[in-house]
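Slide 14.
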Amino acid sequence: MSIYRRKESPHWWINISVAGRKTRRSTGTIDRKQAQEFEIRERERLWRVHKLGDRGSIRWTEAAAQWLESIPEKSRYKENSIIMWFDDQISDEPIRSIDRDAVAELRETLIEEGKRPARVDRYMANLRAVLRKAVELGHLDAAPPVPMMSHVVGEPNWLTQDQFRALCAELPTHLRLAAQFAVYTGLRMRSMLSLTWDRIDLRRGRLWVPGDQMKGARAHGLPLSKDAKKILRQLKTLSPAGDRVFQYDGHPIDDCNTRAFQKAVVRSKVGPLRWHDLRHTFAAWAVQSGVPLYELMQLGGWRTYSMVIRYAHLAPDHLAKSAEKIARFGHSKKRGPT
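Slide 15: predicted structure.
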């Protein structure tokens, strides 16, 4: 049986054989349906790796393990704690999906967690080493750049409504709809592009992203606004066949931060801009419209309050009443001792 339980683990496990190679591992979920979906995806991935030679399908955990094996044994324990942090973030991500945007997002997460610049650089150095080893072993053709803290922009980059309209006017239809959906929902690019129609309930206005498609590995439910539902209906009209929501010319889209996107950024004069900045735009618009930060945290799937507090300065109006109370207290008549 390919899916089974182990006494010492609450999760479902898989035991599959592809091209004569056996794989046993935890699915990381106690839900049987999610475990079955995980098993199907893992079988397909291993088939691409072992039968089709698609080395880019190798998971981060495998690539990191290969790098650890290549360094002196006395250094492995020291570096393993850093690798374990990355495992929590991107354990099941194919190594080829760790692109420029993913690198930037990982660095931002380290900063949000309060790590000092030198510590962030240490983590980034390990990430770069793993990616370069993946190139050396033939898993990747080239590694994305991994800049250090000297290149980090402190404040999140986001678009005004006028800038976003200008960008959309320059985007091809499939990217325009994807950009609008990203701003309306705040979904990260990988989570958004993995969406399938069976995870969407247009009638009730809900969508659900399973944990293995979220950066934090936690399932995420999200209410759909009228605009988001309108975008989904347009997407269904454009691509009526297939399970995936975001398609182009009948094939699932696997990246939005493409040359076409960057050319549109240049033409609209809103750059520099990364696709991930659309998530910052979602957050900025939310707080500017009065959404409380704790609700923004839930809507955007952020794991901690510290990750959304950096958007607070965009809408100081929510502190106005408190400021007035302080002013009134300062002008109130002093009371003598009782």
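Speaker note: The chain is about 50% helix and 10% strand.
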